[in-house]
Amino acid sequence: EDQVTQSPEALRLQEGESSSLNCSYTVSGLRGLFWYRQDPGKGPEFLFTLYSAGEEKEKERLKATLTKKESFLHITAPKPEDSATYLCAVTTSGSARQLTFGSGTQLTVLP
Amino acid sequence: DGGITQSPKYLFRKEGQNVTLSCEQNLNHDAMYWYRQDPGQGLRLIYYSQIVNDFQKGDIAEGYSVSREKKESFPLTVTSAQKNPTAFYLCASRGTDSNQPQHFGDGTRLSIL
After folding, report:
1. Of the partner residues A46, A51, A104, the one whose CB lies closest to the CB of residue B103
2. CA distances from B10 to A39, B42, B112 (A)
3. Which of A15, A91, B16, B76 is the most exposed place for a label (fewest CB within 10 A)?
4. DSSP annotation of B53
């Protein structure tokens, strides 16, 4: 069974304090790993897709990386507006049409 | 602007009642999905549809039903058989290529009266 585990469950940072969120996966045949941002009471907003180990994507203060076992979402010099829940999800060879989600990391950035 | 519209934003269900959640998209996407999100948990797949007039059960389909009569619309009915329906329901759509990301609406929060 495909499994996606995110850690930590919650993270509090001071503004400007860089850190990383982890998404580890146990799947057979990774096709793609997706990062989303979700604000309270809203639907997830797409951030990045990663397809192969060694791949990196960047957007403003966010950088996503991928290895054969896990993905990291690095947040550099975060601001309070980066506060949200960050979700990761995977598609696999066995279920290319479906996303399997982790339970998310709730990030709070304090001013 | 292209996007996914879910309605209503809040919905209340009485015991024994069926309720229907609406999902409409104008992205011209073939695939559409329904997820359930409970506090502190990830999204769980209820039903999905790859094409009009066809749909498949996801991991937690019991107590739910769907239809796909039009490409733009994928309504979800929460039946009285669903004993714990209180949750945040999210609809998503995706283009033809399975490597494309799914895009989400802003959800419907369903509560029991």
Report:
1. A46
2. 17, 20, 11
3. B16
4. T
Chain A contact set for B29 (CB, 8 A): none
DSSP-derived letter for residue B101 is P
CA pair distance B60, B102, nearest whole angstrom: 19
Question: Residue B108 burial by CB count (10 A; 0-12/13-18/19+): exposed, middle or buried?
Answer: buried
Tokens of B82: 């669903």
d(CA A57, CA B46): 30
The encoded tokens of residue B28 equal 């011209």
Residues 6+ apart with CB under 8 A from A94: A2, A28, A29
Tens of pLDDT, residue by residue, chain A (111 residues): 889 999 999 999 999 999 999 999 998 889 999 999 999 999 999 999 999 999 999 999 999 999 999 999 999 999 999 999 999 999 988 776 789 999 999 999 999
Give me A18's structure tokens: 């860089």
d(C-alpha B76, C-alpha B23), whole Å: 8
Query: Distance, in angstroms, between B80 CA and closest chain A CA?
Result: 25
Give the separation between CA B83 and CA B95, rounded to whole angstroms: 33
**How far is the alpha carbon of A16 from chain B, nearest alpha carbon, in Å?**
26
